[in-house]
Design a protein that fits this description.
single chain, 122 residues, alpha/beta, 5-stranded parallel β-sheet
Amino acid sequence: MGQAQRNDRPVATALVVEDDPLVRLVVCSALEDLGMAVVEADDGLAGLAVLRENAAIDLVVTDLTMPNMDGATMIAQARKLRPDLKVLATSGREAPPPGEAFLQKPYRASLLQAKVIQLLNL
């Protein structure tokens, strides 16, 4: 269990939206190491479905380039559901939506963790 976890409860819950299974695994593992609970989705449509069903999501970490619904569209729709939702966009090809936190791929797990700690004030 991660150092930030207290009383066997996650410090926060993250939704990871990533179509590449290996990248998704690495991101989920890095967040779990911070003591976070993690929910996974493999595209923007699935990510939105999770957001509609799970009010406990504190943070969305999403790729921008995905099939079915890209990350920028998913972020815009998520903002309609939850205007104050914390979002971290990632991409190796696309620029981030204006005003969103962003990590350029490839990145180290430690950089992801640092950005999440900053976003959530952990």
